[in-house]
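pls design
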């Protein structure tokens, strides 16, 4: 059933006059008559009674009128929503993120994004970097916020934030009096790290930093989330090298100190599929960069 035929039918049902209906439709009367006959044949039902006194709807026509108006309204709504999705003003964005991004501008960026696009639904999934890359490739995510990782073919990336690693220690630790800590001074401390199964790049980077200062770290615990890392530190279970952003968590009984000298940094990157790309990705990227600049 063509929408064009339904449109002609509704117009004639409202006018109950072929000439006036044809004039509204900007067509001549014969094509309108042909269209109505075609619709009646397709439905195998007479929709209008025609007489010398005019035109009126049959019972079948009365029933179709309400349904036809609903279908035409739905088609217009679908067309508008499709245009909105293509233009990035409506739709659905599936966002993956690592835990540290919650302290690197993500909440502020999402708040701004939703103000700009209140009709867009954002679904969030916390996962490690490798899991997010896989979800991007398998089209389960539209955008991923990850730590340092090489993007595979077909995945675009952009650096969102780069900051130093700092030492996270319990408030009564002997090194808390230092303005900055020499990494070599941690050789006798137990460290709390991400599991290499969860974040191999972070795990390797911390190991390499320690080895460059003459010691292999004694690892006390390996965990899956940043909050677990600093929670264990606050309980006196060891020290950790963490992105400076985690100081914004505000967890009690913790002290954060910078490292002396130059060291590798902690990075947060945004990644997304090159094709097909969700048009909402670029809008959220802009919001993220603005939020990071305000931190």
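designed seq:
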């Amino acid at each position: 059933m063509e929408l064009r035929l339904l449109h002609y039918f509704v117009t004639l049902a409202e006018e109950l006059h072929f000439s006036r209906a044809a004039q509204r439709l900007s067509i001549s009367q014969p094509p309108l008559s042909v269209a109505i006959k075609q619709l009646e044949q397709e439905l195998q039902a007479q929709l209008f009674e025609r007489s010398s006194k005019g035109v009126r709807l049959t019972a079948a026509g009365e029933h179709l009128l309400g349904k036809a108006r609903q279908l035409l309204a739905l088609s217009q709504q679908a067309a508008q929503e499709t245009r909105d999705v293509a233009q990035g003003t409506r739709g659905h964005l599936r966002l993956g993120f690592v835990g540290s991004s919650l302290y690197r501008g993500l909440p502020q960026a999402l708040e701004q994004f939703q103000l700009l696009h209140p009709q867009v639904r954002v679904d969030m999934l916390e996962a490690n970097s490798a899991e997010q890359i896989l979800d991007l490739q398998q089209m389960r995510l539209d955008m991923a916020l990850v730590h340092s990782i090489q993007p595979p073919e077909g995945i675009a990336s952009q650096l969102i934030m780069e900051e130093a690693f700092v030492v996270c220690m319990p408030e009564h630790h002997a090194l808390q009096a230092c303005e900055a800590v020499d990494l070599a001074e941690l050789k006798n401390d137990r460290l709390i790290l991400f599991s290499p199964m969860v974040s191999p790049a972070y795990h390797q980077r911390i190991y390499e930093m320690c080895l460059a200062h003459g010691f292999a770290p004694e690892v006390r615990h390996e965990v899956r989330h940043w909050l677990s890392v600093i929670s264990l530190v606050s309980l006196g279970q060891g020290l950790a090298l963490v992105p400076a952003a985690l100081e914004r968590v505000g967890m009690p009984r913790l002290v954060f100190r910078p490292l002396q000298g130059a060291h590798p940094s902690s990075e947060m990157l945004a990644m997304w599929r090159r094709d097909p790309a969700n048009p909402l990705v670029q809008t959220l990227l802009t919001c993220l960069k603005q939020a990071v600049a305000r931190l």
